[in-house]
Write a structure and sequence with these properties.
- This protein is mainly beta.
- The protein is about 0% helix and about 50% strand.
Length: about 80
Amino acid sequence: MDLIGRYRWRNVELSLQLLNLTNTDWREAQFADNSCVRSEEQSTNPNAPCFVKPGKSGVTPPDGIHFTPGNPFNAIAGVKIFF
């Protein structure tokens, strides 16, 4: 939850932003992907992204999950002058 306010008087604008008011942990972006191990080659099939090289034994690597954490509570103030 964010709170953003701006006030303009003639050629001066004041702004105040209060971001993440509840200060909760959140994930801004999250991605899941599959990685091929050394004994595998990458496939163009999206249902089976890796296949075992001939003469090698198969290994199932864990899925990789990467995320970008969201920002904690933050306050930003600004002044703009228009001319």
